[in-house]
């Protein structure tokens, strides 16, 4: 498979959506070619001039705004992972690469682990977004890779996201996610307490025993 590449300092997961502002001429051309042909392009994490070999194809879902100078805002959705096999020489202003698909191992999904991850994830959603936030309901999910839906908003850094993208075991990704969420949820809870204290001028509210009769 041959793909035009859009290296970014972000990790795109299959099934997740990402807004992009397209301003460089070479990537404007890439996006226009993909829109005209209905094709996908590749997103690879790049850090300190290092291009990671495992990336994810991006399908353009919508163009939300076009500017007079040619810039545009788009929303893309991750489709499938791949591994870079080589960069082609050619006349395109952007990188064109040969890639191979990166499928998952065949294994039964650990639904109990999905439920544990969902519980911790939803706790973060409650703290950050409130009851109306984007909760994850494992009972209503019928796909095979819930980790890719949970990962983008789970507080992972770029290196952790890239590592998760490269894992070929869904249960392995869920285990990594569970360990991470178990570690950060108490920190987020404490941060919420601190914000509540600040909002009340730094004083703890009195207990019932301290209230005057």
Please describe what this structure looks like.
- This protein has 213 residues and is α+β, with helices and mostly antiparallel strands.
- It has 2 domains: 2-101, Roll (Archaeosine Trna-guanine Transglycosylase, Chain: A, domain 4), CATH 2.30.130.40; 111-199, no CATH class.
- The chain starts with a strand and ends in a 14-residue tail after the last helix.
- Mean pLDDT is 90; it is low at 204-213.
- It has helices at residues 25-37, 111-129, 146-150, 158-166, 170-199, and strands spanning 2-4, 17-22, 41-43, 46-47, 50-51, 54-66, 72-87, 96-101.
Distance between the termini: 76 Å
Broad structural category = alpha+beta
Write down the secondary-structure element order.
EEHEEEEEEHHHH
* Total number of distinct structural domains: 2
**Largest sheet at a glance?**
6 strands, antiparallel
Any guess at the CATH architecture of the largest domain?
A: Roll
Residue runs with pLDDT of under 50 for 5 or more positions:
204-213
How large, in whole angstroms, is the Cα Rg?
Answer: 21 Å
CATH-wise, what's the superfamily of the largest domain? LON domain-like
Number of helices: 5
Q: Tally the beta strands.
A: 8
Named CATH topology of the largest domain:
Archaeosine Trna-guanine Transglycosylase, Chain: A, domain 4
The average pLDDT value, as a whole number, equals 90
């Amino acid at each position: 498979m041959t793909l035009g590449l859009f290296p970014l300092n972000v990790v795109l997961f299959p099934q997740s959506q990402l807004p992009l502002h397209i301003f460089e001429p070479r990537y404007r051309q890439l996006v226009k070619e993909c829109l005209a042909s209905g094709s996908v392009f590749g997103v690879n994490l790049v850090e300190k001039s290092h291009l990671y070999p495992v990336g994810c194809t991006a399908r353009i879902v919508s163009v939300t705004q076009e500017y007079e100078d040619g810039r545009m805002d788009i929303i893309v959705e991750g489709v499938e992972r791949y591994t870079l096999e080589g960069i082609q020489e050619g006349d395109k202003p952007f990188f064109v690469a040969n890639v191979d698909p990166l499928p998952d191992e065949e294994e039964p999904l650990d639904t109990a682990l999905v439920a544990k991850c969902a519980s911790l994830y939803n706790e973060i959603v409650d703290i950050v977004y409130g009851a109306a936030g984007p909760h994850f309901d494992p009972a209503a999910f019928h796909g095979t890779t819930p980790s890719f839906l949970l990962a983008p908003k789970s507080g992972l850094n770029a290196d952790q996201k890239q590592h998760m993208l490269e894992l070929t075991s869904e249960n392995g990704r869920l285990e990594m996610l569970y360990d991470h969420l178990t570690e950060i949820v108490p920190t987020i809870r404490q941060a919420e307490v601190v914000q509540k204290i600040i909002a009340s001028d730094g004083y703890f509210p009195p207990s019932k025993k301290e209230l005057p009769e």
